[in-house]
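Sorry, can you check?
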Amino acid sequence: MFSADNLYVLPVGEWIQTAVQWVALHFHSFFQGLKWPIESLLLFIERCFHGVPFPVFVLLFSAIAWLLASRGVALFSFVSLLFIAFMGVWPEAMTTLALITTAIVLCVMVGVPGGILCARSDGVWRVVRPILDIMQTTPSFVYLVPVVMVFGVGTVPGEIAVFIAAIPPLIRFTNLGIRMVDAEVVEAGRAFGATNRQLLWEVQLPLAMPTILGGLNQTVLIAMVMSVIIAMIGAEGLGFVVLEGIGRLDVGRAGVGGISIVLLAIILDRITQAVAKPTGKRESRIMMAVSKVVRFGRANRAMSAGAGIRYTFEAGGLSGDKKASRSPHDI
């Protein structure tokens, strides 16, 4: 009598199916227009990566890793990229790297401004926070169903799924980093006459940058995980190599794709972690930020004072000219 099997079953699945079908039918043109810039960016980056000769790309990437991280990371990147090439999956690795790079660009373009907006408005954060909670707790495979029904199958819909899954950490960390900036520093900036824009660009964002880059690191790792999952909807790259090996029961092929993904993930993780590390003490960064605000404040006050002095001088000159032009009979 009290068994759960005897309860009325709500047709939630049918409601979701109907809603997604209705959106896909009535907003098809909108989603196709939204798909075009993402596809253009992805194709451009992919052509650039595939167009660079293999030795040149390895050397350039290793040099960038040395510049952003360390000599050890550069050496590991060099050896890993060579190993990926000798395993015969270099084109697939470049496609996966293009997917990750496109996802990073899109997440930065949307996630950082979104995090700034959430940090500056508690009302916006109250609305966005439960949405991010849902996005981060939803299983990765669930993203594929609405993406396929709305955008179709292929690499570009897979890129959209990667973007949707990878953007929440960047929004959260950007919001957290800006909110963690010391209130005394912000008040000092306001006291020296800094505007809201100057406070954002010269104080809050520089001090929040390590936290924001930590969110970018999480975004990169989630994008690497999703690059395997989106192979189920026809996305190319190393994930498709893994899926192809599983489908053929070819453990070696799947292992080659998996090892390549792991190596790329470690490379990107070490580079983004090195970039996120602060180069100096927190106190020195605060003093640098305050000094910038002071410089802006002094410049603004100097401009205002100069304008006032010039106005007073011109007014005095005009009044002196009038007094000099008056005749004794006018007194």
Observations:
- The longest helix spans residues 282-325.
- The domain at 29-299 is CATH 1.10.3720.10 (MetI-like fold).
- The chain has one domain: 29-299.
